[in-house]
Design goal:
The chain is of the alpha+beta class and 328 residues long. 29% of the residues lie in helices and 28% in strands. The chain has 10 helices and 18 strands. Strands 8, 13, 14, 15, 16, 17 and 18 form a 7-stranded mixed sheet that branches. Helix 2 runs antiparallel to helix 3. The protein is globular, with a radius of gyration of 20 Å.
Length: 328
């Protein structure tokens, strides 16, 4: 029997553009012999199935069903491909939990916590072999003192929205007099922000997924960019960053990365596929945790498809196993 799957895309943030591209990759690689797939677009205006140009059929949010030509369609599960809110921050997960509908991502609590960079760091910081940069967390409606931040942290700083993605609203501050403008920029994206010390080193990202009941760490990718940091442009403009998959790492470093990434996945109670960004200092010395993405990009050029290929897997099989693990 084919499973009826809702592929949920769009969203209410600037990341919806990436979400649409991710959904296109997923739809193209879902096994049509095993799954009947309906792509559902979620926007500020509503939740719609669009079978043809200019045709929009609204989803009944009471039970997340769809009526086509008088026939009601219900789903066996939801493949959530929405980056940012409401797909990655636990809101949709809570809704589907209330309906008893399984989905491909982490649960509502893990999604909500991991969307917040500061809270995530406080949970994972005692994992053996894992380091976190010294940081300060500030809130829009709570008074803060610039002098306290400057006193407790060493330049340069990264200033970033605590709940944002795709590096939107992020700045690298080299001069203390630029801190306030960087804070103002980040507050345009979020009501709370993280200011953390810059860690010098090589930057990597690695996918972690549970397949066939076993946690699998995919081959890591090294990211190099001539820009100050891996920002939105570097992430999504071809040629701005150099991405090497699998990353050139010594065998013992690869083993250490796998152990730490697995420990993070377990500690945060992750499900489905996640991506962990990290820095290695010196000569593959200390491992510094940057952040975790619980709904990583799946565009044709995204890290996860690259890493799946480097692991010798086909995307078609990867998504089939992912659905089997989380929905079946």
């Amino acid at each position: 029997m084919k499973k009826t799957i809702a592929l949920l895309t769009g969203g209410t943030t600037g990341e919806w553009v990436i979400s649409v591209k991710s959904a296109a990759t997923i739809a193209h690689n879902l096994d049509t012999d095993k799954f009947e797939v309906y792509k559902i677009m979620l926007t500020q205006q509503g939740w719609f199935y669009e079978p043809a140009d200019s045709v929009k059929i609204e989803i009944d949010r009471n039970d997340f069903s769809l009526t086509l030509k008088g026939h009601k369609i219900t789903f066996d599960g939801v493949f959530i491909a929405i980056h940012g809110s409401p797909g990655e921050d636990g809101k949709l997960q809570g809704y589907f939990d209330m309906l008893g509908l399984p989905y491909t991502t982490c649960d509502a609590l893990t999604s909500a916590i991991t969307m917040n960079k500061g809270y995530t760091k406080s949970i994972v910081q005692d994992i053996p072999g894992l380091n976190v940069a010294k940081s300060a967390q500030i809130f829009k409606k709570t008074p803060y003192q610039l002098s306290d931040i400057k006193q407790s942290l060493q330049l340069p700083y990264f200033v970033k929205p605590n709940n944002g993605g795709s590096s939107i609203g992020m700045s690298k501050v080299k001069n203390q007099y630029d801190l306030q403008s960087a804070i103002d920029k980040a507050f345009k994206e979020d009501a709370q922000i993280l200011i953390e010390e810059f860690i010098e080193g090589r930057e990597f990202t690695v996918g972690v997924v549970k397949l066939d009941g076993k946690i699998t760490v995919l081959p890591a990718t090294e990211v190099e960019t001539a820009k100050e940091f891996f920002d939105f442009e570097a992430k999504y403009t071809p040629g701005v960053a150099v991405e090497t998959t699998p990353a050139p790492l010594r065998a013992e470093t690869r083993k250490r990365v796998e152990e730490i990434a697995t420990a993070v996945y377990i500690k945060l109670n992750c499900r489905g596929v996640v991506r962990i960004d990290f820095i290695l200092t010196g000569d593959e010395a200390d491992f510094y945790f940057i952040e975790i993405n619980t709904i990583p990009g799946q565009t044709a050029t995204s890290f996860i498809p690259q890493q799946v290929a480097a692991a010798g897997l086909k995307l078609n099989d990867f998504y089939t196993k992912l659905i089997k693990e989380t929905i079946s």
